[in-house]
Design a protein that fits this description.
about 280 residues, alpha/beta, globular, single chain, about 45% helix
């Protein structure tokens, strides 16, 4: 079962605009912001400037354009956060900011430099990167090292949100929803996800659990179709065995879970692992 720490599942579930809105509203409440999230659009692995081929495409997990034209980027790192990951996220944030300037005829831009909107990069991570991210939510922006004042008027922000702390902290009633979302994302089983969703009595979180089920069910259906097609084409016992291995190898190339491959093909886990 691929849960929310799986990159594809995460993108699928949080591409639902109302889910993403509910998540970010809980995030804003957690950081004690009075703002509300209203999206103009939500994109998953798509060009941030699709109509301008001269601007390099941005690929991330989820990108939302707010009604205010500010941009929110949501990225999940399912393994311990490294310098490479930081550089990647920093590059994404800067690209989103810079790509607002679009050149058209006569070298005029649609957006002037002085009118550029904010970019908020929210990264869900594991580990205490550089030993200074001690909180659940850690905020970074350009600041003067002498007087600790912001130099960029808050035009770009980077949040590092630690998933590995969510089961170890105390939280207030107002913070509970955001913590529950992080626990949903961090859950190791579907039953654990159900537990958190029911405790919150949140319709959206219950939907999240169903979307995870749906994603896994559709993935397995496609695998079963390929499996059955191979069985039809290879009627002999040796042919059937071989088709299972071919399917398993294709699934391994797609980085599918060993348990899922075993369930779909009927091969043992040991047989699947031997195909690597």
């Amino acid at each position: 079962m691929k849960l929310l720490t799986n990159d594809e599942t995460f993108k699928y579930v949080f591409s639902y605009e109302y889910v993403l809105k509910d998540f970010f509203d809980s995030f804003l409440k957690y950081i004690k912001s009075k703002k509300k999230v209203e999206f103009n659009s939500v994109m998953t692995q798509s060009y941030i400037i699709p109509h301008n081929k001269n601007i390099k495409g941005y690929y991330g997990d989820i990108v939302g354009i707010l009604n205010s034209k500010d941009i929110i980027s949501l990225e999940l790192y399912s393994t311990p956060f490294t310098k490479k990951d930081y550089n990647k996220s920093y590059a994404y944030k800067c690209r989103l900011y810079a790509n607002q300037i679009m050149r058209i005829k006569n070298n005029e831009s649609i957006i002037k430099y002085e009118d550029m909107k904010k970019v908020i990069s929210v990264n869900l991570i594991y580990g205490n990167f550089r030993g200074i991210n001690n909180n659940i939510v850690n905020l970074y922006s350009f600041r003067n090292k002498v007087n600790n004042r912001s130099i960029d008027e808050g035009n770009t922000f980077m949040y590092l949100v630690r998933l590995d702390l969510v089961n170890k902290i105390r939280y207030t009633k107002g913070e509970a929803k955001f913590i529950t979302y992080l626990r949903l994302i961090n859950a190791k089983t579907i039953k654990e996800m159900e537990k958190y969703a029911k405790e919150r009595r949140s319709r959206t979180m219950i939907d999240v659990v169903e979307y995870v089920r749906e994603w896994n069910r559709e993935s397995n259906i496609e695998g079963m179709k390929r499996f059955r097609n191979n069985l039809t084409e290879n009627g002999k016992v040796n042919g059937i065995k071989e088709s299972k291995k071919e399917i398993a190898q294709n699934m391994l190339k797609r980085n599918m879970e060993i348990d899922d491959i075993s369930d779909i093909t009927g091969l043992t886990k040991k047989e699947v692992l031997s195909l690597r």
